[in-house]
Every structure is written in structure tokens, then in C-alpha cells.
Amino acid sequence: MIYLDNAATSWPKPDGVIKAMERALLGFSSNPGRGVHKGALGAERIVSHTRELLAQLFNIQDPSRIVFAANATHALNQAIQGSLKPGDQVITTTMEHNSVWRPLKYLERKGVELKAVRCDEFGQISPAEIERNIQSNTSLIVTTHASNVTGTVQPVKEIGKIARKHGITYLLDASQTAGVLPIDVVELNVDLMAFPGHKGLLGPQGTGGLYIRAGAELEPLIQGGTGGNSELEFQPEILPGKYESGTLNTVGIAGLGAAVEYLLAQDQAEIMQKETYLCESLIKGVSEIDKVKIYGPPDRKGMAPVVSINLAGVESNEVGYILDRAFQIAVRSGLHCAPQAHATIGTSEQGTVRFSPSSFNSEQDVLSAITALKEIAREF
Fold first, then answer.
1. What are phi and psi of 199, to 5 degrees?
2. Over the stretch 91-119, which tens digit does the pLDDT of each residue have?
3. For the chain, which terminal residue's Cβ has fewer other Cβ atoms within 10 angstroms, N or C?
4. Strand, coil or helix: what is 78?
């Protein structure tokens, strides 16, 4: 199989990921922070080590400001529902994933004022438009770092500066960029950042996290046992425990730690260069096929490795099905859990066929995909 669906979940994983998970499962199947026996202490070391590695990757000075979550959706809900109350205004964009959009629409019913600033046909947002929509009750700005539909990278540094200038919390959804693009939370002026472990970070599913800058405290989404401070009747204020009630996915976190170690040992510029090259090669080859439309920015440099296309008159799901069954090529088709983004770029009815290569793919993988699309186009 040729796997070109890394924007959904990365595959394959580095060898060390599976080995680390196996070691954790066999040697430390205990609750981290729940006891002083060797198993519990070993599990706690795994969790702490992974937290430190993530802090290094994202230039976070205090690892305790990283809270583990089941996935980016969990982390985004903690950030959104933990920071907004009735009467607040929140500003977002029309390129957001449902992991942002649905919690915001839920809170809109509860009295939160929602403003979605429209992006252009390439999925790009204007920071000036965000600033124009700030009101006295604006308490949160939330944007994706890069679109999971078009790969468009937003000007998050400028948006962060605007948020900081107005004293507004800025939440970044790094679902498509964590582990793919360089992220420095200080340089980007980020207050909150949600990330999954299973995409660009190359870890297992069921992992992710939320960075919470000092001073950007949230109401906990879940309350309960935190291991420490068991004598308290209420949720403790100490991080990360305040936001980590219940038993953590220690085995998954062990795999995530091994994946981040792998990434830290690589030349990230080389990885980006290869992924950009693969996307540019795909776009060049596909653009030569009649009746093909390519979405997103014309210039792919600095974009996330995501390419969305359509064949005129052919349902995206049908193209995806044929690629899988006839050519053993895995892609994502449809609306990608981002209907607002598709409405923005004009693909609400058809969806798109999304290719998302990783550094583990080869140029031959891309050439095979182009050849397959040419054959499908001829058939239709």
C-alpha cells in the first residue's frame, strides 16, 4: 500500500515508538503518580520524560505547562470550554476543523458570541480582519495553524501579536503542524496550543496535549483523581495535575516520547524540504491532467504537506475508493471534518481528494499517485 493520508494519522511510525510502548506495557503497567512502588515511579518517569521532550520541541520553558490529553479534540475542548463564559466574544476563522467549530457552536447556544472571520479562496486569513472584529468583550481568538484541507499556513505570529496587544488569549490548533513545521510558542505569541500525538509527531493514537502559558489559567474540563493532593475536596490548582484527572495513557505517552526523540534527532529543515518537494511534484503532475482542480495557495513553500484536488464531475469519495481498491493508494476524501473550510473554498458539495505525504514517502509514491489519477480521469 502507498500511504498518503498522514494528515489524518501518520504511518509508518519510527521503530522506537513500538519498542517504547512494548517496554512500558511489559515493565510499567502502573498508574503514574499513584504510589511509591517501582511500577508507579517508572510510569511517572515515562510521563515526565515525554513532557520534557515536548517542551524542548516547542520551546516551552516549564514542562509542567504541558497537559496530556487523549487527542487534539480533547485538548481543544479543554481550552475552549475552559476559557469562555456567557457574554464573552470569541473570534475564529472559516477554515477551522470541527474540533474547534463544534465546541464554539455549542457555547454559542449558551450565550457566547461567536465571530467567524472569512478566509480567502486559498484559505488564508487577514490578521487585520481579526483585529477589526475585536470588541470589549473579546476574550479568546482561536485559529488553526495550518488547514487540514488546503495546507494553508496562517500568519499566526501576527495574530498572536494582535491578541497580546489587546490582552486577549490566543489559542492555536497545531493539529497539522506539530512535528511538521517549527513551532516556538514564545516567538508565535501563543497562550494556548493544542496538538495531537498521532499525526506529525509520529506517535500513537490516543495521545495529545495542551500547552497553557502561565497566566492563561482555565477551568478544568474534567475533575477527579490527580494522584497528588488527594486530601483536597476540590480540584488542585497545581499543573499539570489540575487538568489531568484520571489515569493517563502511559503506554501511548511512552510511544509519543520515543517519536519526539526521533524528531529531535532529525534535521527538521530537511524533512520540510522533502515534504514540500513531494507536494510540488504531485501538484505539477496532477496539473497536467484535464479537468483537475487544485485547491490552496499556488506557492507551496512554507505550507503544510497537504494537497487537495478534484476531478470535474466525479465524487471525491468515488476517486478515493478507486485509488484504494484499484491502485492500493490510501488518501482521504470528503469534507475532512471541516465543512466551514470547504464552504470557504467552494467544495461543500463535492468535498476534495486529499493527499498528505510524509518524509517516509518516496518520489515513486507520488509518481504512482499521478499515474493512477491519469487512469481514473481517462475512465471518466
1. -105, -110
2. 999 999 999 999 999 999 999 999 999 99
3. N
4. helix
